[in-house]
Amino acid sequence: MILIGNGRMVTRDEEQPFMEDGCVAVNGTLIEAVGSTEELVARYPGSKFIDAKGGLIMPGLINAHDHIYSAMSRGISINGYDPHGFLDILNGMWWNIDRHLTLEQTKYSAYATYIDCIKNGVTTVFDHHASYKDISGSLFTIADVAKELGVRTCLCYEISDRDGEEKMKEAVKESEDFISFALQDDTDMVKAMMGYHASFTLSNKTLEYCAEHKSPEVGYHIHVAEGMDDLLDCLHKYQKRLIYRLFDMGILGEKTICGHCIHINEAEMDLLKETNTMVVHNPESNMGNAVGCGPVLKMMEKGILVGLGTDGYTNDMLESLKVANIIHKHHLCDPNAAWGEVPQMLYYNNREIGARYFEKPIGILKPGARADVIIMDYNPLTPMNASNVNGHLLFGASGRNTVMTMINGKVRMKDRKLIGIDEEEIMAKSREEAEKLWNSINS
Fold this sequence. Notes:
Layout: E1 2-10, E2 18-27, E3 30-36, H1 37-43, E4 48-51, E5 56-59, E6 61-66, H2 86-98, H3 103-119, E7 122-129, H4 138-149, E8 152-157, H5 165-184, E9 190-192, E10 194-198, H6 204-212, E11 220-224, H7 228-238, H8 242-248, E12 257-260, H9 266-275, E13 278-281, H10 283-288, H11 296-301, E14 306-308, H12 317-332, H13 341-355, E15 373-376, H14 389-396, E16 402-407, E17 410-414, E18 417-418, H15 423-442
Parallel strand pairs: 1-4, 1-5, 6-7, 7-8, 8-9, 10-11, 11-12, 12-13, 13-14
Antiparallel strand pairs: 1-2, 2-3, 5-15, 15-16, 16-17, 17-18
Helix pairs in contact: 3-4, 3-15, 8-9
């Protein structure tokens, strides 16, 4: 038994949301009990004790939409890259990177991303991968790294027609094989989805081909209406709006994630709600790409399950929380906007998204949930209680406040030191591979 106590505890459990001196009892991979430090120390004598030293004890955070393959873009300079719109950004930057990314570079992109997640208190990642230079084995390579570092993950490959039919079919094969693998895994640590890029890079023929090769047990993970070009392409080619096309092709449903959904109308929102389809908001990426602010507050008003992701922009979910809070205030010219909805996305809706794939509860501290627990070095200068925890985290903390990360009952970082992970060696190798990638792109 491991006890994590002597800290202010934020459970995200409505029955007991906050304790001034809380403690979590971990038995194997699951949480056995929550209570006061005094109570659980007395109940479980002789247990190993992890001292939060007055910090915050919280559930591990969940990133509902990430791009591991973008890790080596940090600081990159691409010859001739001068984007004047979203399509230029895709073709000049992201598709350019994935067309040169080797399997070894995918591996070290995964190492770098998952290490950064551990250091930022992110314990579960839904990733959307692309590496059109080396497709075969890429999802398995990422899964191997996730297993080695102990991060819970749900993976998919970004199927697209953009590099031709042969590459598309290879991507479908990788997806089909990995989905079969994940469905047989009994650890509750790795799951899979069928990934799509976006409507404008996918023909009906390709969508039908993918459906023939997808297990009914998983859904799709697709970018939707991220840029206006996606919508216009759909209107011109199919004489219908994007969500209607996805509905007609059988893509929507309770296991499907639609990323972004910026340029959709109210009728499309109603269809998302009717099909119980999930949406993930990625505010930093949307601002960086200048594609707009998604109407996610309206979606939530309609009861659509909207989560929060980073789209590869960062691995700090509290950073995305801050940006999500202000983008809607700015967009709506309303300082009262988004106070409740944005914390709902990160702390509760991401947990519900996770529940559609992972068997045991995650993102909550309660008996029976997975033992994904973090400690944050945060000493509030103002009173802290159940009613204002979100305000403290929004204005007073960042992912880098994380000092301890436990995933599935195993401590992966303690006192800001990674456990059993040679970060220096991994980062040195990552820099070598990044330099090779950059030289390949610019040669």
